[in-house]
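ok, trying the design again with the full structure, not the truncated one.
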């Protein structure tokens, strides 16, 4: 049996989770950890990072057993549109407000796919934005302006 790690979907997903989790633990190592009852600023990133590493190890083990190959190829549109929509989100949060920034992020992320339908995406973006406003602005009380005037 030859292990084909190079094109194994689950192995690469596991590696990504391990790297992300390890980075979170390394970044949070200088923060106070606290306890489960009195959590410090390092508690959540350390615990979550550890869980990501464990899930990553599980995925790698599953990938080595199943040997499922990666299908498809790279999308140039996705490689350009997704980072661009993230950058636009950051810029628009500063200059336009939470609602326009989130709408642009959702529509831009959907536009990176091959099955983009404007009507469906606008409905999805409106619903997700309304949910995010209710959750983050009104529910959690985050101080982001909904709209800003230029």
């Amino acid at each position: 049996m030859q292990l084909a790690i190079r094109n194994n979907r689950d192995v690469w997903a596991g590696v990504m989770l391990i790297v992300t989790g390890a980075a979170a633990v390394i970044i949070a190592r200088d923060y106070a950890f606290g306890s489960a009852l009195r959590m410090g600023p390092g508690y959540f990133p350390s615990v979550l990072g550890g869980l990501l590493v464990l899930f990553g190890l599980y995925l790698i083990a599953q990938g080595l057993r199943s040997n499922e190959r990666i299908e498809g190829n790279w999308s140039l549109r996705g490689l350009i549109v997704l980072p661009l929509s993230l950058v636009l989100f950051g810029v628009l949060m500063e200059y336009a407000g939470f609602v326009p920034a989130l709408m642009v992020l959702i529509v831009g992320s959907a536009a990176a796919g091959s099955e983009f339908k404007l009507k469906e995406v606008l409905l999805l973006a409106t619903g997700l934005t309304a949910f995010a406003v209710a959750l983050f602005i009104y529910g959690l009380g985050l101080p982001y302006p909904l709209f800003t005037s230029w």
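Keeping the full-length input from now on. The radius of gyration is 20 Å.
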